[in-house]
Amino acid sequence: MKERRILLTGGTGLLGQALLPGLFAWGEVRAPAQSEVDLNDPATVHKAISEYKPHLLIHLAAQTHVDQCEGAPEETLRVNARGTAHVAIAAAREGARVVLLSTDYVFDGGQRIPYREYQTTAPLNVYGRSKEEAERAVLSVVEDSLVVRSASLFGHGGRNFVNAILERGRRGESLQIVNDQVQSPTWVQHLATAVIRAAVSDMKGILHLTARGGCTWFEFAQAILTRAGLTVSCEPISSARLGRPARRPAYSVLETRLAEETLGVRIPDWHEGLAAYLDEVLGS
């Protein structure tokens, strides 16, 4: 196992930081800085991959701020779609397995039952379209590839909904939270364990890995405040009233049965992930 070379892009992000400790048990790991693997510069991408010659490349690096992506479509597509294509081409030349992190936002939210891996994608926003193109690039170029779709990540080490609600709640701010978008908040520590299990398997294609269950952002905010013992006004509002630049799917819960049946991977319910994370954060 230790001879395996693993290249991780986006190692400073939420999931990247959670993955690193577990990856070291599987091989030699390199997590280059953004300047070393600049997705806007194919030369640096090819250089980093050809020099390291990874057996496994986990590609997390991307523009992920959904509303900022909406205002910068060309930059988003250049980084998330074409940048991923550069990674895929270079990895294919070295015979590396590629695991790409994607998103529930590749779906339009038009149904009310969890989405399966094989269902047709129809993203509503620039971010979702860029990840849809990234998926196609990896799956079409790299024979040994896996696209992992997840959703609504939270944890240590970066911007996320849980931390934002805690900060605002501690300041005593009144909150207005959308109550018409259903998703599956996923703790990165639970996800990291599942991603590693999938990455070192022989599975190819597309795999959904999220926490079990679903909730609206309002319901999630209420759970955070209750668990943290914070009493502030929290009002449910519509997405239209919030008026964010990027449209979000009304329902983007992902069906995770394939991961359970083929890999024995079952991420706990989102309530369990939230409780575990807040226990760490609140020191209880």
Give a written overview of the molecule:
- This protein has 284 residues and is of the alpha/beta class.
- It has a domain at 5-160 and 186-210 and 254-267: Rossmann fold.
- Helix content is 43%, strand content 16%.
- The protein has eleven helices and twelve strands.
- It has helices at residues 14-23, 42-52, 66-71, 73-94, 126-141, 161-170, 188-199, 217-228, 239-242, 257-263, 270-282; strands at residues 5-9, 28-30, 56-59, 97-103, 145-150, 153-154, 175-178, 182-183, 186-187, 205-208, 215-216, 234-237.
- The strands form four sheets. A six-stranded parallel sheet has the order 2-1-3-4-5-10, sandwiched between helices. A two-stranded parallel ribbon has the order 6-9. A two-stranded parallel sheet has the order 7-12.
- α1 packs across α7.
- The relative contact order is 0.15.
Q: How far apart lie the N and C ends?
A: 37 Å
Silhouette: globular
User: What is the CATH C-level name of the domain at 5-160 and 186-210 and 254-267?
Assistant: Alpha Beta
**Largest sheet entry:** 6 strands, parallel
H and E string: EHEHEHHEHEEHEEEHEEHEHHH
User: At CATH's second level, what is the architecture of the domain at 5-160 and 186-210 and 254-267?
Assistant: 3-Layer(aba) Sandwich
How many DSSP H or I helices?
Answer: 11
Number of strands: 12
Give the integer mean of the pLDDT values: 95
Helix content bin = 40-55%
Helix vs. strand class: alpha/beta
Q: What do we call the CATH homologous superfamily of the domain at 5-160 and 186-210 and 254-267?
A: NAD(P)-binding Rossmann-like Domain
Low-confidence stretches: none
CATH topology of the domain at 5-160 and 186-210 and 254-267: Rossmann fold
Amount of beta strand: 15-25%
Rounded Rg: 19 Å
**Reading side by side through the largest sheet, how are the strands ordered?**
2-1-3-4-5-10
